[in-house]
């Protein structure tokens, strides 16, 4: 039996131990729990150790009323159970659905992405002049952290080989893709990059989306040959 199988098999009994503690008005010791649940004290002790490790149960020594050793008792940790099921996918659908009702949903999504992109990207010192190569590296590092599996390609493009929101992107591409583009634009603006993300091409390839990069006007002007000053006649 693997560790996962063992955890699954132990789950009902462990939950029973936790529920017994929650149903009690007072903290309980191992013997009391074993009697209430009709199981061996060593089994109770095993599950209590796991629950304490998970932060679901608090263990303390109870001051004795007379002579004798202090008794070890257990009580459920106060607060909401953090081991329950999460519904972040549903939350994302609710928020995207609401955002999609905006008169210009794409622009609103891009603006939201811009603000977060500037927050998420690795910062540079104010005096540091960043080049195109370093800007691309910082951009791909941020997108890697977010789970997009970016891969720099030829012709100033970046392939995004994984979408961490794939199911949502298939349903809300008109909102979610502009948000992703906004993330990249906000990041490049924040680090004063000489390049800009001009376009995000969703599902441009069977296994990737394509990000198109181009020099900013400032960078393009710096690369263009200087015009000669006309001679005065």
UniProtKB/TrEMBL annotation:
Residues 12-101 form the HTH arsR-type domain. CDD domains: HTH_ARSR. Signal peptide: none annotated. Residues 62-83 are annotated as: Disordered. InterPro entries: ArsR-like_HTH, HTH_ArsR_DNA-bd_dom, WH-like_DNA-bd_sf, WH_DNA-bd_sf. SUPFAM superfamilies: Winged helix' DNA-binding domain. It holds the Pfam family HTH_20. Coiled coil: none annotated. This is ArsR family transcriptional regulator. It comes from Kribbella orskensis.
């Amino acid at each position: 039996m693997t560790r996962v199988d063992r955890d699954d098999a132990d789950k009902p009994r462990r939950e029973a131990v936790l529920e017994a503690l929650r149903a009690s008005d007072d903290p309980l010791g191992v013997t009391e729990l074993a009697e209430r649940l009709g199981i061996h004290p060593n089994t109770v002790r095993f599950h209590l150790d796991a629950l304490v490790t998970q932060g679901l149960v608090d263990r303390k020594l109870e001051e004795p009323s007379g002579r004798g050793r202090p008794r070890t008792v257990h009580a459920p940790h106060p607060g909401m159970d953090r081991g329950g099921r999460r519904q972040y996918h549903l939350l994302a659908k609710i928020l995207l659905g609401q955002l999609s009702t905006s008169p210009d949903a794409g622009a609103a999504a891009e603006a939201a992405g811009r603000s977060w992109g500037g927050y998420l990207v690795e910062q540079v010192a104010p005096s540091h002049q960043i080049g195109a190569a370093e800007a691309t590296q910082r951009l791909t590092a941020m997108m890697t952290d977010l789970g997009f599996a970016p891969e720099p390609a030829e012709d100033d493009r970046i392939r995004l080989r994984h979408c961490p929101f794939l199911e949502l992107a298939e349903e809300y591409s008109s909102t979610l893709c502009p948000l992703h583009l906004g993330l990249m634009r906000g990041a490049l603006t924040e680090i004063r990059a000489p390049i800009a993300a001009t376009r995000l091409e969703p599902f441009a390839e069977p296994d990737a989306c394509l990000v198109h990069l181009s020099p900013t006007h400032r960078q393009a002007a710096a690369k263009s040959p200087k015009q000669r000053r006309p001679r005065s006649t």
